[in-house]
Amino acid sequence: MAIHKLANYLICCALFLPLICNSTVADEPPILAFPGAEGFGAHSQGGRGGRVLFVTNLNDSGPGSFREAVEAKGPRYILFRVAGVIPLEDELVCREPYSTIAGQSAPGDGVCLKNFNFTIRAHDVIVQHLRFRPGDEPAAALLAKGRSFEPDAVTIGAPSRDVILDHCSATWSTDECCTVSGAGIDNVTVQWCLIAESLNHGAHHKGDHGFGSLIRCNGRVSYHHNLYAHHRTRSPRPGTYGPGSILFDFRNNVIYDSNGYSAEDPVRMNYVGNYIRKPNGPAFKVGGKSTQMYQQGNYQEESGTKNEDFWQLISSAKPENKREEPFEVEPVSTQTAKDAYDAVLRAAGATLPERDAVDARIVEQVRAGTGELIDSQADVGGWPAYGAGELPADADNDGMPDEWETQHGLDPAVDDHLGDPDGDGYPNLEEYLNGGEP
């Protein structure tokens, strides 16, 4: 009898142990896109597990170009072996999923895109330390041909999901600088970015149109630790397309010389720990009864005791707009508004390999309380020169310098960019790109 009981016990174990193990694994959240990724887009896979593609020239297209790498199929890490300005000849659209674009891999002073906008229409995309500065140089020729010229600097469009922009710089757009817009978008984070100097009276057919961010979708979006500076408005402008309602978490951002608002379309919004300096209107204006807003811990300079009840600084907010409890969102390490101000000015934008002269000037203007809306990048000197720098030796072409591999016990003669000696889920190449230990 005992043998039969033991046999039955072993059969039960065989049947149910895999279910228990699978349940445990399923309950473990996926690893982050990279250490420090937060918000709704924090679990983007990017190009994890894919091949390495190198950008080797500053051409608009062709072999070795950024466009060729962006349009390639399959999981991929896009690394740069060149520094400087890439003059796009038309809009560049990322339609293929599973890509990691690592601007921090560039030598010298890094990489900047000009002339046209960069748009993401894919899932699982990570973009770090890249500069988007279209400017207005193509406007005259295109308008003469009857074409419009109204580019954003960078756009996350439909049907994107699981996308994160981290430490990027977006300036000199004719429309918005950094936009998330389109039905079907979900799980997006824009963090530690510098979003500034949209061109106010540029080539837009509506006239003055220097705007920060249109964030309009029916999914979940996080914007945190970003710097907004020198926009007419839309810092931010959340909203919804079609049925449903955006869930928008906006926290620990710095807004200088701008303001934000919502419109009639439904919005569910947390507005938390933001620092406002010299707004060119109310810090935020509620556009209608469909806006549901939770606000807490925000601070506006020179507003005295009104900061104790920040609702006094939000225009048109009625009792039905005010929410007492925050909407449930993906976690973001949240600071006081004053601490966020210091952190954002210190670290926002494309800071690797170096913060460029444009971002340095804008940050200094925020600190000093100077600067103004601009109509053209020519008003502030245009694109700076970017030093080429020197590429570190990489004998096996796996994207990791020989010296770094040797220091970390890897073989510089073997392509081991997908190895994971410590078993933490981050391949060796990602450890290198994000300052980790393999």
In brief:
The chain has 438 residues and is of the alpha/beta class. It has helices spanning 2-27, 66-71, 139-144, 337-347, 357-368, 402-407, 428-433; strands at residues 51-55, 76-80, 84-87, 92-94, 99-102, 111-114, 118-120, 123-128, 131-132, 154-157, 161-166, 169-171, 178-181, 186-191, 194-196, 214-216, 220-224, 227-229, 237-239, 246-251, 254-256, 260-261, 267-272, 275-277, 284-285, 291-296, 299-300, 314-315. The termini are far apart.
Q: Overview of this structure, please?
A:
By secondary structure, this protein is of the alpha/beta class. The protein has two domains: 330 residues, Single-stranded right-handed beta-helix, Pectin lyase-like (Pectate Lyase C-like), CATH 2.160.20.10; 33 residues, no CATH class. It is 17% helix and 25% strand. The protein has seven helices and 28 strands. It starts with a helix and ends in a 5-residue tail after the last helix. The N terminus is likely disordered. Keywords: Glycoprotein, Metal-binding, Signal.
Whole-Å distance between the termini?
54 Å
What percent of the residues sit in helical stretches (DSSP H or I)? 10-25%
Can you tell me the number of structural domains? Answer: 2
Largest sheet: 10 strands, parallel
What is the CATH superfamily label of the largest domain? Single-stranded right-handed beta-helix, Pectin lyase-like
CATH topology of the largest domain: Pectate Lyase C-like
The chain-level structural class is alpha/beta
- Extended strand count: 28
